Amino acid sequence: MAMKIMEKIRNVFHCEAHRILYVCESQSLRNFIRKELLLGNCLTAGKMNISIDLDTNYAELVLNVGRVTLGENNRNKMKDRQLSKQQNENISRAVCALLNSGGGVIKAEVENEDYSYKKDGIGLDLENSFSNMLPFVPNFLDFMQNGNYFHIFVKSWSLDTSSLQIATLSSSLYKRDVTSAKVMNASAALEFLKDKEKTGGRAYLRPELPAKRACVDVQEESNMEALAADFFNRTELNYKEKLNFTESTHVEIKNFSTEKLLQRIREILPQYVSAFANTDGGYLFVGLNKDKEIIGFKSEKSYLTKLEEVTKHSIGKLPVHHFCMEKGTINYLCKFLGVYDKGSLCGYVYALRVERFCCAVFAKKPDSWHVKDNRVKQLTEKEWIQFMVDSERAYEELPSPASTSSPVSQSCPLREYINFKIQPRRYHLPGLSEKITCTPETLCRNLFSQHEGLEQLICEEMGSVSKGSLIFSRSWSLDLGLQENHKVLCDALLISQDKPPVLYTFHTVQDEEFKGYSTQTAQTLKQKLAKIGGYTEKVCVMTKIFYLSPEGKTSCQYDLNLQVIYPESYYRTTTRTVKDLEEALSNILPEENQIFLFVCLFCFFVCFFLR
């Protein structure tokens, strides 16, 4: 029954089920949908619990991470270390998701009583996680306590401080660094991936080097690899025999107790196989002590079969990505070398040879997140690589709160705004001629002549603004590709040096609720300014809703500035930030309007040279 209701609502609003809340202006209907139909809004992956806050007053993408213990001392005193780790992961993944989705706010309920941000801080482990993720934390994150809630304001990821397209917690791509298997940081991973993309992968077998004359007392790493290969090919080993080689780029030696052998093999294989495959291949030997003596582990044949199955399963499920045409699999060979003591079999050494891989082998999916389809989702290895190496991909998808299922016409205030920037004609409000410029002129004149009280209201609202531009549109929502609300008279976006951008919504239907419409429009505008427009500063879009009566009387029905508080850095505007905002607005023109912009520019230059 619920699904039938959902389908009917979806057909009415022409949007996907998980986006219905954003186009339902009836509060009672929104509450019903939230309670009955959208209980799956909370993402649970393992113990991760991040939900999208649909009841927020912020015109932002807000992620709720639940109850969290904050403060350096309080986090150090936590007895449940697993819980502390999980809280850290939740917050880090939420930050990562917002960085990759146009920015937003993280909301956490403070677990510990008497917490004070200014006295207790947030906790060193959280600070370290942010530092590992971001090149300079203050450029992207702001922290604010509001009563029993803690907010982290996240600015969208940008290329101004990094050559990387997206934020990543861990690439999950391993490499061999001398004797260690280390995960590549995002920059190293990008270089590795671009190299494979440029060459179209590489051959499985390394090219043979020309024979070198023997040199006395000259030792190279290739000598250790050759000795490891000889050891791997032996059929019998002697108990307590000492190896004549050590760990290197191509050799890893381990020793686990028999009781935990299966578990430990399962745990270490992903990172070591990834490291060897992404480097030049290598050997993993299990059953030798720290003195490099052959100890082996005791085992029945059935247990060896289990070990072989675990090896096959673990390697078989490793994510791989191909840049080549062959698209081969990971080549490896697993053996159990018998260990003999005075001629009697006393155990085995686990021996694994991994060949170098043609392209990229991950230990697991990259630890990188974004918001998609109203969910916080982990990127697959394919998605992550596309975002990393393809500069265009980073701007393809935005977590817009609503979308139309059919093509819509564009009212295009931006097109006319660009035209206004080129043409000298502009509309000035009476008494504010040197302060506020309204555009487009024709639309402004029509609106002011048709709706009594609108021009006077605008003049009163702009009275405290020292200088700015007011961009009118029949529907800013429609211009941004969202669903139009036909009961909205018009929208106007204020860009000024005095305050953050303000989106005004004017309507003539007294009993209707327009907060959802205004909020979704402002949120989408902010996301597009960052992800498509290229705006790199911190920004928030305030909303204000006015009712115009048939008699010309006006009343303010909603003012976001009275409902929410942002960090101080979000209120700072300068001549440069205004200019950058205007440039970002021009960049988010619909594609079909780029031709119009080109024509306008061409005409402008022709007129300039003919003067």
TrEMBL record:
* Residue stretches making up the Schlafen AlbA-2 domain: 247-370
Membrane is among the record's keywords: yes
Q: List, alphabetically, the PANTHER family matched.
A: SCHLAFEN, SCHLAFEN FAMILY MEMBER 12-LIKE
Supply the alphabetized keyword list: Membrane, Transmembrane, Transmembrane helix
Task: Look up and give the organism this protein is from.
Answer: Theropithecus gelada
The molecule here is called Schlafen family member 12 like
Instruction: Note the Gene3D superfamilies from the entry.
Output: Schlafen, AAA domain (3.30.950.30)
TM regions (residue ranges):
594-610
Question: Schlafen GTPase-like domain: which residues?
Answer: 434-571
Q: Name one Pfam family in it.
A: B3R
Name of the gene encoding the protein in the UniProt record: SLFN12L
The organism that produces this protein has a lineage beginning with: Eukaryota, Metazoa, Chordata, Craniata, Vertebrata
An annotated Gene Ontology molecular function: RNA nuclease activity
Choose any GO biological process term that the UniProt entry carries and state it: rRNA catabolic process
Q: Where is the Poxin-Schlafen/Schlafen-like N-terminal domain?
A: 129-245
Does Endoplasmic reticulum appear among the keywords? no
